[in-house]
Amino acid sequence: MQSTRSSALSRALSTAVRSHRHTAKRYSSSIAILSQRRQSLPQQQQPHGILSRPVYTPISRNQIRHASTAAPSPDDLQKTPLYDLHLAHGGKMVPFGGFHMPVQYSSLGVAQSHLFTRSHASLFDVSHMVQRIITGPGAAAFLERITPSDCKGLEPHKSTLSAFMTLDGKGGISDDTIITKLAEEKFYVVTNAGCREKDNMYIDREMAKWNTEMGHENLRVKEEQLDGWGLVALQGPKAEEILQGVLAEEVDLKKLLFGGSVFATVKYDGKVGGPLLISRGGYTGEDGFEISIPPAETVGITEAFLAAGPEKIQLAGLGARDSLRLEAGMCLYGHELHDGITPVEAGLSWIIPKERRSENAGYYGADVIAKQLVPRSKGGAGVHRRRIGLLVEGAPARDGAEIVSRSEDGKEVVSLGTVTSGCPSPSLGKNIAMGYIKDGFHKAGTEVDVLVRGRPRKAVVTKMPFVPTKYWKGITPA
Amino acid sequence: MASIARCLRAARPSAFAAVRSSVSRTVAARPFSVTASNEIRKYTKEHEWIDLAADKKTGVIGISEYAAKALGDLVYVELPEEGRTVNKGDAIGAVESVKSAADINAPVSCKITQINLVLEEKPGNLNQVPEDDSHGGGWIAKVQVDEQGLQDFEALMDSEQYNEFTATEEH
């Protein structure tokens, strides 16, 4: 890692370079999270001068490898179909996941944009993410080899959070993903932009292997990527009303629950567009939708959403997206998740259904995960570290800050873990953070310290989400 | 005090409106300082400013308008330690927004004699009046400057050079 004291603005204007390095550094230590931290962290948690240290760190290991030798030039970056629209709205563009992406817009600061999303609605361009269609008679079985999800049992038009498991069988997360079953032999799989190359290699290799195995003659699968397509997230309490106003056909959105999806046509520019795949969910903790749009229609349909008016809907960028997902307790690949973290450590055991919890469940790492799912107190392996939420007093604790035992008279301070994401919460007015802590210290209410700029700050382990989620799960009977 | 006029002069057009509106709210409540006309303000490439008094022994430091605007809404300020002697470039504090944390580096070798405690309660002053060194302004600390500090000071950019510097950094 470069000196933590070099020119701040030059760094700020080349965020890609710096944040790649920063992430790479974090990787190198977080894998040995409870052992080698001390020597590497004091450097990391130093901010780097005014105008530095964005939180939107690129997240692919491929990129990191790339960045360690040469910084990607802005010319290498791709543009989403909404690039010109971002510029027209004063989008401040930064490199992210191989794309020019807006971190915020001139109309609202990050905190204001965050609060606007919670009170009204925001539209996020997430077209940088990779939209994949996996089809074939063996599609569900294939996905059940690379993920711990129940893809055969998933109902059509339902989605699940899932994880591509590392091929070394150690139970690590190679990428996190949302899998939607479109039909018995057709799945829509959205993966992280920063993991694009890594995921492509992973899927190509696994698919080639699957398709040539004995007995798979009638279970072949293939993959298609929706290159150049738009993906927008409409998030916030006004999202349903705004979407309803754009639909060209009768759809009872009250019956479209969180985790469900539907194809529907929309009105824009005096035309009918689509049908579009509309999925209820998102990455903010609010009710909302993610809408996949063919390339030629992306700008027109996005403008149709924005036509609801600035008092109801605003564009929002990566800055608000990060603080919103953090308040909602959601993981970001490259921070909370990586090759060396298992779903059990990450608090994502819930993505593994009961019927896939045995050692012979058939996905990569199933034996390791099955043992981890049983706590040590019950004879299993359990886990040695767990993802937790923290409320931090005083200075915000950010990625890389060390979690230590609370300093008390005469007691030696010991290292307990590391913060993986953190920021001042715009909704709560308190500093929130996520991180990994030694098993046993993970219970809500546990008092610890977090080292920020070398000084201990009081922190307490807190249940997540920090801000209650508002997913639409139907009308609850009174 | 002169820093208001100076802020207005120094501000790039895009920052101008914000500065003017915040000034108009606060100016009536605050008497102008009488010493400012004798001060010289210089800037670092890391976006700190320092006013050196006419006696060339004391100064005031802060972060630039350009930096404050680029950082966005600041929600936390870690102030320097009073009494500490620091070298040019040492991290003496930090400013934080929702999305970023940034060090404040010492613009010159100096001793911290007083810190702006108001910022602990009102970090937003840093966004509104970052280059104001009066009470209620966004200044960070008052400092004593020795011979080394004076030499460091001479090497810094004046406001015109700094404006050119930030204009080229924009691209």
Automatic annotation (TrEMBL), chain A:
Record-level GO cellular component terms? glycine cleavage complex; mitochondrion
From which residue to which does any coiled coil extend?
A: none
Which transformation does this protein catalyse, written as a reaction? Answer: N(6)-[(R)-S(8)-aminomethyldihydrolipoyl]-L-lysyl-[protein] + (6S)-5,6,7,8-tetrahydrofolate = N(6)-[(R)-dihydrolipoyl]-L-lysyl-[protein] + (6R)-5,10-methylene-5,6,7,8-tetrahydrofolate + NH4(+)
UniProt: substrate binding residues: E290
Supply the Pfam families for this chain. Answer: GCV_T, GCV_T_C
Please list the residue ranges that the record marks as compositionally biased, kind Low complexity. Answer: 1-17
As for subcellular location, the record says: Mitochondrion
Keywords for this protein: Aminotransferase, Mitochondrion, Transferase, Transit peptide
Which domain of life does this protein belong to? Eukaryota
Q: Which InterPro entries match?
A: GcvT, GcvT/YgfZ/DmdA, GcvT/YgfZ_C, GcvT_C, GCVT_N, TrmE/GcvT-like
Domain Aminomethyltransferase C-terminal: residue ranges: 385-467
Q: Please state the Enzyme Commission number of this protein.
A: 2.1.2.10
Q: Which residues form the GCVT N-terminal domain?
A: 82-354
**Any one biological process term the GO annotation gives:** glycine catabolic process
Alphabetically, the GO molecular function entries are: aminomethyltransferase activity; transaminase activity
Spans annotated as Disordered: 1-24
Q: What task does this protein carry out? A: The glycine cleavage system catalyzes the degradation of glycine.
Similarity section = Belongs to the GcvT family.
NCBIfam families, per database record: gcvT, PRK00389.1
Quaternary context: The glycine cleavage system is composed of four proteins: P, T, L and H.
What's the protein here called? Aminomethyltransferase
TrEMBL record, chain B:
Can you supply a Gene Ontology BP term from the record? Answer: glycine decarboxylation via glycine cleavage system
PTM N6-lipoyllysine: list the residues: K99
Keyword entries, A-Z? Lipoyl, Mitochondrion, Transit peptide
Q: Mind telling me which SUPFAM superfamilies this protein's record contains?
A: Single hybrid motif (SSF51230)
Location in or out of the cell: Mitochondrion
User: What cofactors are annotated for this protein?
Assistant: (R)-lipoate
The record, for InterPro entries, names: 2-oxoA_DH_lipoyl-BS, Biotin_lipoyl, GCV_H, GCV_H/Fam206, GCV_H_sub, Single_hybrid_motif
The record's free-text note on cofactor binding: Binds 1 lipoyl cofactor covalently.
What are the record's GO terms for cellular component? glycine cleavage complex; mitochondrion
The record's section on Pfam families has: GCV_H
Q: Which PANTHER family match?
A: GLYCINE CLEAVAGE SYSTEM H PROTEIN (PTHR11715), GLYCINE CLEAVAGE SYSTEM H PROTEIN-RELATED (PTHR11715:SF3)
Q: What does this protein do?
A: The H protein shuttles the methylamine group of glycine from the P protein to the T protein.
The subunit structure is:
The glycine cleavage system is composed of four proteins: P, T, L and H.
Descriptive protein name: Glycine cleavage system H protein
Q: Which organism is it from?
A: Triangularia verruculosa
